[in-house]
Amino acid sequence: MFTEYFQANIDYPLAIEVTYMDFPSVFTWTNGMKKWTIWQRGCCVGQLYFVSPSVGERYFLRTLLMKVKGVGSFEALCTVNNVVHDTFKLACITFGFI
Q1: Beta carbons within 8 Å of 5's beta carbon, 6+ residues apart
Q2: What is the pLDDT of residues 45-64, one digit of tens each?
Q3: Which of 13, 15, 59, 94 could bridge 80 with an S-S bond, Cβ 3.0-4.6 Å?
């Protein structure tokens, strides 16, 4: 589901306006096709699990997913001002989230 989120950001122009956290309110996961599709009616509430800062990179990945919209890859997630950072932590610091 997570890697297909990147593909949905490439396939749907609407997806680039939505963070990963808000994605289930606009898109629905189709199990049979294994992809995200636009909600036809209604909406849904999704959940992004808590991650402790002591976990390290997973915490910074979650922070980026809550703030950054429309990324199509892990590399794009770590890119700030056309500079690709080696870690999610450096990207968070450069964005000013930490």
Answers
A1: 20, 23, 36
A2: 666 778 999 999 999 999 99
A3: 94
